[in-house]
Design a protein that fits this description.
Elements lengths: L1 E5 L5 H11 L3 E6 L13 E3 L14 E6 L5 H11 L3 E7 L34 H15 L4 E6 L1 E3 L10 H8 L2 E5 L5 E2 L1 E3 H14 L3 E5 L6 E2 H14 L9 E5 L1 H6 L4 E2 L2 E2 L17 H5 L7 H12 L13 H18 L1
Parallel strand pairs: 1-2, 1-4, 2-3, 4-5, 5-6, 6-11, 7-10, 8-13, 14-15
Antiparallel strand pairs: 9-12
Helix pairs in contact: 1-5, 2-3, 4-6, 6-9
């Protein structure tokens, strides 16, 4: 298969490239050269911005195009129209954030998507999902019957630049007392980037079309399972912490009272509320039937931690600051004592 990747040097894109090469495919990269430009020195690279430089690809033809960087329907329309006569198949990476109603668990691909009240190309927390939904429609309109719209959940694993999952293995590796939201039996859905990448390559080989939710694992794991897995991986690893990690389960009411930020500041945490019931209860039956498979949580935790340990010190975009976590735990213990 001749595969063109729009991007290919950041997280999902780089893992798709690696998975495609492992299966013997010929891969070309088209990107701006701003992130990891020398990552695949032996692959053909066309430098350019998809918004202005698609003509640099005018002489090429491909079996499949992978679009990991489409956020605005106008741009996706231009790209898909350009490739309509140059590629047999187009895969667009969307998001489960397209869904407008999360009040019912186990929603599938037929559930309603969000719509913009006012037309805009500004990507914000409120517009991201509706814009992705419009991008799906734009791709399909430009290449009808040849588009595979894939809606991942939170993508995790080695090379994740967000730290939203990495925070937990890394925090357990530090040891000592760890603040965890007191929702031990609530589910968590994430997809290991390697599982998603390998499935994307197989799906492009098969020329899958239509819309697919793509999160995981096969059955959601719980917060307690995440805690236990991180504890076990750290304890059995090559660098156990000086102080064994131990968890303090802190109520959601307390976290909200203290204005702890959900999802990013305290990664993976979304308050358990009626309007977000489906957030970690998205149906992936269609994707599983189409061959999406999952490695064990233990492998994702172990490999993510191993990758994290190779990274230089940096300011991560997600995660509870050490000083704030310590202050919150002190306040929590005081609150529990006062109410005893």
């Amino acid at each position: 298969m001749k595969l063109l990747v729009l991007g290919g040097t950041i997280f999902l894109g780089r893992h798709v490239v690696e998975a495609a090469r492992a299966r013997g495919h010929e891969v070309t990269l088209f990107h701006r050269g701003q992130h990891n430009p020398g990552l695949f020195p032996d692959l053909p690279v066309v430098l350019g911005d998809r918004k202005t430089d698609l003509e640099k690809l005018a002489g090429g033809s491909w079996d499949a195009v992978l679009d990991t960087s489409g956020y605005v329907p106008r741009v996706v329309t231009e790209s898909a129209r350009f490739f309509a006569d140059r590629a047999q198949h187009y895969t667009f990476i969307s998001s489960i954030s397209v869904f407008s109603d999360l009040t019912k668990p186990w929603i599938d691909e037929s559930a309603p998507v969000g719509r913009l009240e006012t037309e805009t190309e500004e990507v914000t927390g409120e517009t991201y999902g509706p814009l992705k939904a419009l991008c799906e429609e734009a791709a399909e309109a430009a290449m009808p019957g040849r588009v595979w719209n894939v809606r991942p959940g939170l993508i995790v694993g080695p090379d994740d630049p967000t730290h939203r999952f990495t925070y937990w293995p890394a925090r357990f590796a530090q040891g000592d007392e760890i603040l965890v939201p007191d929702i031990p039996n609530e589910p968590i859905q994430v997809i290991d980037v390697r599982d998603l990448a390998e499935w994307l390559v197989r799906g492009m080989e098969e020329k899958l079309t239509g819309v697919y939710n793509a999160t995981g694992p096969a059955e959601p794991f719980t917060w307690r399972e995440l805690v236990d897995t991180c504890t076990d991986v750290v304890a059995s690893g090559p660098e156990p912490p000086a102080v064994h990690p131990h968890v303090t389960w802190v109520s959601e009411a307390f976290l909200q009272e203290k204005k702890v930020g959900a999802w990013m500041e305290l990664p993976l945490w979304v308050p358990v509320e009626p309007e977000s019931v489906a957030f970690s209860r998205i149906s992936i039956e269609k994707a599983k039937q189409a061959g999406l498979t999952f490695r064990p949580l233990e492998a994702t935790v172990r490999d993510t931690l191993a990758w994290f340990r190779t990274q230089p010190d940096r300011d991560w975009p997600a995660g509870l600051a050490e000083r704030k976590e310590s202050a919150l735990l002190t306040d929590w213990h005081r609150t529990v004592a006062e109410n005893a």
